[in-house]
Amino acid sequence: MVVKTATYSGMNLKGEIRESISLDEDDLSDVEDEVFIRDGKNGFKLAEELNVKRPLMAPRRRSGKHESGSRLKPRPSCRAWCKPCCYVFLSLSVLIGLIILVVVLVSIYPLPLDRLKDWIVSKANKPRNRDDRLPCSSLKITEIWAINLPNLTTDSPVRAIDVDNDGVEDVVFGFGTGENDHVMPDDVFCPIFMGMPPPCNGGIIALNGRNGDTIWKRWLNDTIFGVHCTADVNLDGTNDCLIVGVDGTIAVIDSRTGEDVWMLNMGKMNVFVANFIDDRNGDNISDVITSHSYLEDKTSGHIILLSGKSGREIKRVQTPNRSKTFFMPQLLKQNESSLMVLFGTGTPNSPGNLSVVPINDLESLENKSITLYEDKFKGVLTQPALADITGDGVPDIVASMYNSTVVAIDGKSWNTIWSYTFTNGVTDMSPTPAFFNLDEVPDFLVVYQKYDSIFHYNYTEVSLRLTQFSPRTDKDNARGWSGFLSIPCCNNLYLSEIP
């Protein structure tokens, strides 16, 4: 221990300040520095105030260990920052690489979500013994032939039938030339615009399936919109075609020659929608069932049976409530002894029903018919699809109503299985049944037309209804997707091959 006494010359001894401090050797510099830092407020005066010159040596900093933390630390080098940055960059590179790898693998080997679902569900359910048919992941289309049919329009279905007996199916469809008969007479329009004498308002044509050449063309005084080639009426070994026109024409055409077997023309005010059915008059030739409405009469609906051999009327019955009908009658076979006729009534602006009646009770249509679906505002216009979705061996009824509703009805009990409603849509197209996923229940493609009242344009909405059915529960909220499809209008006909 050292005792140090500081005395300054020129000072009054009465005001002498003495300080006796017990210090270690490490704190000597602190005491010496106090001479230069204490002021008179604490009882001390600076040397300048006492006429004493300040020492030339500046106060030394304290070198005690307790101030080491207050010193400035050196900045870390760049190398210290590079290491974590490299780790982050490497992790991001690996993550991006994995994402790119997954995208490439999915694009090369697409896997439907239904497959993933089947894998998950198959762990809990017993495996089913069935032949799984995987969908095509890519299609290659090869054009076989293409032809142009100038000045012709068509709203007719295209039917495939071998009309020239060469072993290759040919193409048969109906056509029209527009609503020109309302603009100018046929004897003026046909020579000038079609280069031929009347009739030239429409007809039916057969094209060679090998090269697209015209086999025959039958001109008529009507636009043909309905074609069915499912019965051999003249017994020549080839199915003939039942055709229906917009101006009341109904006829059977020999598919080999294009000549008519018989033809009825009831005039523009009569609307027919017809199809072949099995023989009903005992001549062993398929007959024709048709719906009929008279446009000028609000209550004029009929179901008519015609002889397939001659076109003679066999039976005519009034629809329930005398409602108009533009629905093509269908036959639904419940069993070997029960054959039902399915028909619809109503117009786009009047109420209608979807009903069924045994074919043997057709004469008592109003009393024997069973109503399956009723709409109090719009009619039932389009044929439903008949497909077994319940697994009981009886075709069920899946109908797309004009009022934006798709409904499935059990073909055995007539109970509603499920229904689905679109928003503000109309349709004149039947549902298309197919297997779109990997189960054994038919699915349905539905097309609805919509009109946008804000932007004033029409568009078509295509929806895929994936149906699921269990004997205990009805899966009304089945999965589905919807999209938009733009269908261009043209007068070219193409035949393509998909290998």
From TrEMBL:
Checking SUPFAM superfamilies in the record gives:
Quinoprotein alcohol dehydrogenase-like (SSF50998)
Superkingdom of the source species: Eukaryota
Q: How does it sit in the membrane?
A: Single-pass membrane protein
Query: What's in the keyword line of the UniProt record?
Result: Membrane, Transmembrane, Transmembrane helix
Spell out the InterPro entries in the cross-references: Beta-prop_FAM234A_B, FAM234, Quinoprotein_ADH-like_sf, WD40/YVTN_repeat-like_dom_sf
Give TM regions: 87-109
Q: Where in the cell is it found?
A: Membrane
Give residue ranges for domain FAM234A/B beta-propeller: 148-346
Q: Which Pfam families match?
A: Beta-prop_FAM234A_B (PF23727)
| Gene Ontology, cellular component aspect | membrane
Q: Gene3D superfamilies per the record?
A: YVTN repeat-like/Quinoprotein amine dehydrogenase
Similarity-based family? Belongs to the FAM234 family.
Question: What PANTHER family does the database record attribute to this sequence?
Answer: IG-LIKE DOMAIN-CONTAINING PROTEIN (PTHR21419:SF30), PTHR21419
Name the record gives this protein: FAM234A/B beta-propeller domain-containing protein
Q: Which organism is it from?
A: Dendroctonus ponderosae
